[in-house]
Amino acid sequence: MKFIVETSARHVHVTQEDLETLFGKGYVLTKKKDLSQPGQYACEERVTVVGSKKELAGVSILGPCRKATQVELSLTDARSIGVAAPIRESGDIAGSGACKLVGPCGEVELKEGVIAAKRHIHATTKDAEALGVTNGEIVSVKVDTEGRSLVFGDVVVRVSDSYALAMHIDTDESNAAGCGREVYGEIVK
Ligand SMILES: [Zn+2]
Question: Which of 57, 62, 97 is CA-nearest to residue 78?
Answer without folding.
Answer: 97
